[in-house]
Design brief:
By secondary structure, this protein is α+β, with helices and mostly antiparallel strands. It has 3 domains: about 1-155, no CATH class; about 175-240; about 245-310, no CATH class. It has 7 helices and 8 strands; from the N terminus they run ββααββαααααββββ. The protein has helices at about 25-35, 40-70, 95-120, 135-155, 160-175, 175-205, 210-240, and strands spanning about 5-15, 15-20, 70-80, 80-90, 265, 270-275, 290-295, 300. The radius of gyration is 24 Å and the shape is elongated.
Length: about 300
């Protein structure tokens, strides 16, 4: 996934910083130069800016929903392949489901608005009787972009929104690790089908279109590595679920008993140790830690808050 390296700060809204990657500018110049059909290039510039306005509102949907359920979200990054909202919802299926679903719901909310504008400027049934004006072409193209983004994002391919929604729904009956494993496997199957479809399209047309190139790059550079990362995370979660536990402790946030073993790493000397066996003190360098991270929900809490109350 993209990082802030090579990006510059645009603005801050609702406590969320929005960054733009430098490569966006290069791709923007290329895409705008290829946009045809308008009487002036200004409309092509507006079309490309509108595309990223839709992407930005989509990402704000993720971020604000994540905050609503008590998660952390303070960064959005725009780049040539769209946008990324760095969200960390509480590790509960309902909280994760809402944080992910809120993004596509923004596109759903935009659909009737844009549809109304298209029909107001000139319904498709009258296209043969009215001239295609720049404003109609612009609005109709934005309508198409919003619809395509919605349908593409809802594909059940991890880590697209559809794949993460599938994982969140499966979380209820299957648990955290198995749901991610199933979603990752479904994602791999979807990627194979996408590559086969692209291959048949190239063979049938005997040409490689710009859309096919972008889709292959998206699949191989973005979706496939993240799908593989999800598969590896699922394996780790399944191993974690089988690990022994400290039954005399419980996370103050999710109430899960912590795993027993050297799963915590000292920030000073990088020694792995069991913080619950050493009282949150590194056995190698003696560094003490005020807070301990839960392996289940990721929340930091003082070790004193982890102790279970005595049973009377």
């Amino acid at each position: 996934m993209p990082t802030r390296q090579g990006s510059f700060h645009l603005f801050r809204l609702f406590g969320i910083d929005v960054f733009l990657h430098w490569s966006w500018l290069l791709v923007a110049v290329y895409q705008i130069s290829r946009t045809k059909g308008y009487s002036t290039p200004v409309w092509a510039v507006l079309e490309y800016l509108a595309l990223f306005a839709i992407v930005l509102t989509h990402e704000f949907g993720h971020a604000l929903a994540c905050r609503q359920v008590g998660g952390q979200a303070n960064l959005i990054l725009l780049w040539p392949f769209g946008g990324v909202a760095y969200v960390s919802p509480p590790q509960r299926p309902g909280a994760t489901l809402w944080s992910i679903a809120a993004g596509p719901l923004v596109n759903v909310a935009l659909f009737p608005v844009l549809t109304g504008l298209v029909f107001w400027l000139g319904p498709p049934s009258e296209l043969q009787r009215i001239p295609i004006t720049d404003n109609y072409r612009f609005v109709f193209t934005i309508w198409q972009i919003n619809l395509v983004l919605l349908l593409f994002n809802m594909l059940p391919v991890y880590p697209l929104d559809g794949g993460q929604i599938l994982r969140s729904i499966l979380w209820y009956p299957l648990g955290r690790g198995r749901s991610l494993m199933v979603a990752s496997i479904v994602g791999f199957c979807g990627l194979i089908l996408a590559l086969v479809f692209i291959g048949f399209h190239i063979l049938r047309t005997n040409a490689i279109s710009q859309e096919a190139i972008w889709l292959v790059i998206l699949v191989l550079v973005i979706v496939l590595p993240n799908c593989w990362r999800g598969f590896q995370e699922a394996q780790a979660l399944l191993r974690l679920a089988k690990a022994p536990r400290h039954d005399d402790f419980a996370c103050p946030n999710c109430h899960a008993a912590p795993v027993a073993g050297n799963f915590w790493v000292c920030g000073q000397c990088r020694t792995a140790f069991d913080t619950f066996s050493t009282g949150a003190t590194c056995p190698q360098c003696g560094a003490q830690f005020a807070n301990t991270a839960c392996m289940e929900c990721g929340i930091l809490s003082p070790l004193s808050e982890w102790a279970k109350p005595p049973v009377l």
